[in-house]
Amino acid sequence: MTPPLVTGARARPPAAAAPFGLVTLVALVALASASAACGGDDGDGDGDIDVSGLTYAPCPLASHVGGFDIILGDGFTAVQGQVFDAVTPSRVLEPLATAGACTWLRSPTLVCNPGCTGGQICGPGGTCIAAPVAQDVGTVTVAGLAAAVSMPARPPAYFYSFTGALPHPGFAAGAGMRLEADGLTLLGWGIEPLVVAGTTIGVQAGAAVPVSWTAPAQAGPARVELSLNVNGHGLVGSRVDCVVEDTGAFTIPEPLVTSLVADGLSGFPTLSIRRTTTDSARLGDRCVELDVESAVTLDVTIPGLESCDGDEDCTPPATCQPDLTCG
After folding, report:
1. Which among 236, 266, 10 is positioned nearest to 108, based on CA atoms?
2. pLDDT by residue (tens digit) across 250-260?
3. Sequence ranges of the domains in the chain
4. How many C-beta neighbours within 10 Å does residue 150 have?
């Protein structure tokens, strides 16, 4: 689950230091022509792209080294990505419990003493290892969008981003897509924009969390990823991730919600909802993804939890704590 999640629901490898810290260069991709609106042309004149074999196939966290995203955003379509030479250990989450389509996950505890030097990160067993380095995977092309997309390698960060001034949306619903790079061919499918009513959702121990969104006219190979994170600013990094059919509704099971809340809370909890098609391919012992996604993040309200950016957000005598809660 890459990422912010522009945030995705699964753990995704970092860009430069983390992809969420990079400034996303948003590419606006062209409106489909009449033939493309019917899934006909891919902008290259290649005709239809066969994605009949496309299934939801994410990389295992233990081998996930990055990938590419075609993002159907609010008023824009972006094409971007980055591939590393190794896995970031802190993103290999540990499963604690599973209930149906959902898993409670926790970040690993990685402690290195003495601390790691420049160019290193802390790995398993308290050992400093080389920090993952972004890789040159040649010129990356994407066919199946309303216009051809080509992204050259740009050293030293090798963060690929399509910067052409092209209008939105970038693809027709149901259109097949194909991304190609050195040693890589990945497929995608034209999803509909994700629509969720409201901007907040309530969560509390002892209760399941019903989630709803507008179901698409055609789900195709897409899935919906849910990621409930109530301790993003605390010492314990845990969350509940679910991967479900795109039917418009799902309920996160109460036992996992209760366990997650008991594991710790911090300020500004969120529920991320992402509609995506996800294809993956191997590069040796590494795995690279292509996600075609549309995402919405809801603010989570929890009884007794007051989030803050500063003391002025708290009711005296409470003050804003390092975990961004009033206390």
Report:
1. 236
2. 999 999 999 99
3. 19-313
4. 12
